[in-house]
Amino acid sequence: MNTDLEKVILSADEINTRVQEIAIEINQNYEGSVREVILITLLDGAIVFTADLIRHLSVPIRLDCIRVSSYGNSTNPETAPRILGSLKSDVQDKHVLLVDDILDTGNTMKKIVNEVSVQKPASLRTCVFLDKPERRQNNFQADWSGFSIPDEFVVGYGLDYAGRYRELPYLGTLKPEIYSHNT
Ligand code: 5GP
Ligand code: MG
Questions:
Q1: Atom 12 (ligand 1): residue with closest C-alpha?
Q2: Which of 32, 85, 94, 130 is the most exposed place for a label (fewest CB within 10 A)?
Q3: pTM over 0.90
Q4: What is the Å distance from ligand 2's center to 47 Cα?
Q5: Is 103's pLDDT higher than 80?
């Protein structure tokens, strides 16, 4: 385990098993009825989850990205998530699957869902690696969610603190002194 971590919450094996289960559910949802899915991943956090997930999908996808920033360099969310950049695909009449790392307040997903909806996709589904239901500020629920976790700030498997720890293959919490030492 990385020495900056206080504890591991999800091991790499647990994560891999669950990612495959979600992929099966997604495949079952689209199989037979949908020719192609436009999978929109929310950078930067969802990059690792997305990379693993898509390699278990049987429905053909086209990948697009939106960069969203909601945390800056702290663990406190800014009031409104910022969308930095736009989609390359025309999603009108297309089947869209939005993928994010974690559903926290729900503000990010709600905002993106609203933005994509106005472009009139044929369908719009959402998939998140993690869910912190205690933190929700709206009634947003993802169609697929990997794990429900308590209200703790987590890093690893794509999730960062001040840009670090995204490469860890497991999920964990940081030692308290890491926050106070951060520059
Ligand atoms: P929301 O808009 O749902 O509050 O925030 C979602 C975003 O906040 C996530 O995509 C993620 O970037 C960030 N976030 C929320 N909780 C955590 C956490 O525990 N760890 C990290 N690294 N990012 C988080
Ligand atoms: Mg994010």
A1: 45
A2: 32
A3: yes
A4: 9
A5: yes
